[in-house]
Amino acid sequence: MQKQPILRTTVSFQLAATAALLVACSGTTDPDAPGSGGSTSTAGTSAAGNPSAGATMGTAGTSSPIAGTASTTGGASGVSGSSTTGAGGAGGVSAQGGSGGSTVTGGGGYGGKVVGGAGGTSGGASSGSGGGGNTGGSTGACPNGATAQPCPPTEPNSIAYIGCSMADNIGQGYGEVGGKIMWNNSGYGTGAKVVENWGPSGDGWSLFATKLNATGGKDKIKAIMVQICVLSTHSEDNVKAMIKAARDHVNPGTHIYIVGQPSYEAGHSCFLAGNGGAEWTEATAQKIALDPSVNQDLTYLGKFKLDTTKGESSDGCHAAGPGFAALGNQAKAYWGG
User: Fold this and answer.
1) CATH number reported for the structural domain that contains residue 292 in this entry
2) Across residues 73-90, what is the average pLDDT?
3) How many whole angstroms separate alpha carbon 91 and alpha carbon 78?
4) What is the mean pLDDT of residues 165-171?
5) How many domains does the chain contain in total?
6) Which residues are 47's β-sheet partners?
7) Most CB contacts within 10 A, which of 164, 165, 219, 250?
8) 264 lies in which domain range?
């Protein structure tokens, strides 16, 4: 019965000690409180044509168990260097952006078979746009204003041609309007030389060799215009044989521009080619250009046109009077200069 007051005294002492301990700890920081976030990093910059990487993530806060989250801003996109004549500008590559880099502008370019600058890769949410170009580009143009695709060579006498009298008409007209890039018909004369005359053993090649030597030889030739010209025989196999022979008479890689006989005003056709023959040559030129078995280094050039109602032909087929200038100016538009 006398031990009960002793127990109450011991409990009271323990409670008092606990209260004092709580008062002593009341000034400390709660370990569960969140700390402040890491600082935001800044965007990297880039020189023209050399994209920078985006800035790195900020370091997480360490003042508390709950780390702060830092944000980044995407680096600026690279911009392609400006293009020069003869080379397409390459598209700039966008930096990998945290918040999205700027849109890349592809470089445009003139020149030969160069494809226009490619668009940059995605920078955050923005994407690059493709640059202009000559082959495959969206808005490319040749340096001398030529419309042929790919852009033709520009050196004098660097484009040869084969065909019939209508090709000879083009060569004559081209010389008369001051054209220098493609051969003229001086000392040449391809009259009556249809597809079969330009086959592997055709007699047209002796004329070609004479003109070739007079203009500087095989190394001078960078392209050749091949005209499909027929009388009554229409054979795609013969056209393919002519193209093969043409490749055998120039250096490897020499580009072939294929064309048909001239077209005329609506309702008129050249009688010498037989019924529908002239139209067949035009359709075949376009078809052959898409044939994967023969279209290596070969493209369709376009139409040559004569209008008999304007006196551009006197016999309904060949050029006459103003027809030579008409064909010559069309050739000059294809080749430029």
Assistant:
1) 3.40.50.1110
2) 31
3) 9
4) 97
5) 1
6) 50
7) 164
8) 159-335
